[in-house]
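Hi everyone,

Forwarding the result from last night's run.
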Amino acid sequence: MEAASPARLYATVVGPALVVLGILGFFYSASFGELDSYEDALGGLQVNGWLNLFYVATGALGVLLAGVASRRYALAVGLLYTLLAIFGWGTGGLHLAVGLLGLAAAAGTPSGRSRRTTGKKRPRPRRSKPRAKAVGKRA
């Protein structure tokens, strides 16, 4: 069995964690008011309805794409969360950590196009059955 790539590990760990974080955030604040009005929850985490929905959506994508497109997910979520941390929407430290981990996981995983086989050619399967020798005829 092959070892999981960094991007697959990222998607399978960060995806469910974001879903749980988003669901827990709704217990603290479910208001869909202004984007920049937050409530503190879970020891300094800033939440509101929009952020909670965002966490659940991006986490659910990670769960769904972990086995199919984990590198693309890690790259997209890494860029998105890093930009959110730079522009200051939500909890900057959490967004920066999730973003930089995603970018590192995407960088540490080779793209699907660069994966090649070992270069050995596989023998082609026979397409037809071998002919049976005719009975009674001599060569």
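Residues 36 and 62 are 25 Å apart (CA to CA).

Cheers,
N.
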